[in-house]
Amino acid sequence: MTAMEPLTPERVDPQHHADEVGTLLGFLDFHRRTLLLKTDGLDGEALRRRLPPSTMTLGGLIKHLAMVEDNWFSQVWLDEHVEPWASADWDADRDWEWTSAADDTPEELRAQWDASVARSQRALTAALAAGGLDQESRRRHRGTGEPVSLRWVLVHMIEEYARHNGHADLLREAVDGATGE
Hints:
Blueprint: H1 20-39, H2 44-48, H3 58-78, H4 96-100, H5 106-130, E1 136-140, E2 147-149, H6 150-176
Antiparallel strand pairs: 1-2
């Protein structure tokens, strides 16, 4: 396994006395950076390594979370379709983002994630400027049929990253023994 140059900017703890928006954004950024810390410096072989019986990989996590970013902030919030997700054959492979990650280089995975987060941040900045956390999404939640608030999307994104960061802890330890933050 060849180590690559780390790409992650320093992770900063969320402020302890921020307002609601600051708290939510602080925790989302913290968890985004945690994922990057868990995947920083790994080559393609390491990003494809599995911890049986799971088929999950660190590369798959990066691509999955890029897809989640675009799903909630582009598709659900703005009702915009973004590539590569819009043209993926989801009928042939419901886990396309996970399985196709094995074909991507570390640089491609990181670039995809960076682009997805940048789109999310632009959408979020515009939404906050236009009216705050109580605004509703343009698309409806596929489970409930109701729109979701921006607050709900942010809390869900924090939950999504936090859950997968637990997976990343275990996968990274299996790859090279690295533990902790």
